[in-house]
Specification:
By secondary structure, the protein is mainly alpha-helical. It has eleven helices and no strands. It is rod-shaped and about 100 Å long.
């Protein structure tokens, strides 16, 4: 069970840690901001603006096709009924179907000619919409995984900060090396909070960043910093057997390790959805529909050189 699923809310926990002196007011405020991702796992309506515009284009195309069909139908009916047909000219004459039957046949042919391209266009448009929605859904999973890690960080910060406060209160005499180690661990807590806040500030852009490769690269670098600071904190904790063996600390290690795996899987699936979508809007005949419907190419969530060379988190 995750720490945020029972007991006090995150805001109550942060306020309590601030009141008890576990966190400074600045740290508490940064934690609050880092947990308030405005976009959330679901893309907001303003992020789907291009989709709304494409639906309007699709409706206008269908309306235009219906208007043309109606105009042609009226013209053919008026042309066929403009005069009185002489029955004597057609009755008992093999092979002669009459002018009205010819008009109906022409009308059906025109309706078929118009209906086929409209149906094909609508199918292609709907296919591109489905693939784009798959990209949005995959990105929501990435955000959800990042948010899960963000939800776990306050518990990690509280556990380490409480231990440091306990050490400072109970150990009157410490060696210089031990004091330096505690300062390093406290600094790691501070840097983790800052890295998490920076990442959250970027994530507030929501789905708007999906068209911008530089924005996604910035998110990747920010999340890499969060992972790196967590790794540093766990590495420093190795020097503190009491902290390393605490039940809460061990539980958080396992949950954060699982979260890192979820993040990697979610990012991989996101890139797969983007690849399928980008291919659809670049290949014929989908590219023709994409141009009319203003479908734009999406960015891949690729790791930069720092991410590729970063050491793997090892919590055990």
């Amino acid at each position: 069970m995750e720490p945020n699923e029972a007991g006090p809310s995150r805001e109550e926990r942060i306020s309590r840690m601030e009141a008890e002196g576990v966190l400074s007011p600045a740290q508490a405020e940064m934690l609050r901001q880092s947990l308030s991702v405005a976009s959330g796992p679901q893309a907001s309506s303003d992020e789907r603006g291009p989709s709304t515009g494409r639906m309007a284009v699709a409706k206008w195309v269908l309306y235009l096709a219906l208007v043309l069909l109606a105009v042609l139908s009226v013209g053919l009916l008026e042309g066929g009924g403009g005069g009185i047909q002489e029955v004597s000219q057609t009755i008992n004459q093999p092979g002669v179907t009459g002018e009205m039957n010819k008009s109906l046949s022409n009308l059906l042919a025109i309706m078929l000619i118009l209906a086929v391209p409209v149906a094909i266009w609508a199918w292609l448009h709907n296919s591109l919409v489905s693939r784009e929605e798959a990209v949005f859904a995959s990105w929501a999973q990435v955000e959800s995984s990042y948010q899960r890690r963000s939800d776990l960080i306050p518990s990690l910060v509280e556990t380490v900060s409480r231990y440091l406060r306990h050490e400072a209160a109970t150990l009157a005499q410490v060696t210089r090396e031990r004091g330096a180690g505690e300062r390093d661990l406290a600094a790691a807590v501070e840097e983790l909070i800052k890295a998490q806040k920076a990442s959250t500030d970027l994530l507030r852009q929501g789905g708007k960043m999906l068209d911008d490769p530089e924005a996604l690269a910035a998110i990747g670098r920010a999340e890499l910093q969060v992972g790196g600071q967590m790794q540093r904190m766990f590495a420093l904790a190795e020097s503190y057997p009491e902290l390393k063996s605490a039940d809460q600390f061990l539980t958080l290690q396992g949950q954060l390790e699982g979260t890192e795996n979820r993040i990697n899987v979610a990012r991989m699936r996101f890139d797969e959805a983007v690849e399928a979508y980008n291919q659809s809007i670049r290949k014929l005949p989908g590219s023709l529909v994409a141009g009319v419907g203003r479908f734009s190419r999406k960015a891949y969530f690729q790791a930069d050189e720092e991410a590729e060379n970063a050491p793997k988190l090892d919590f055990h």
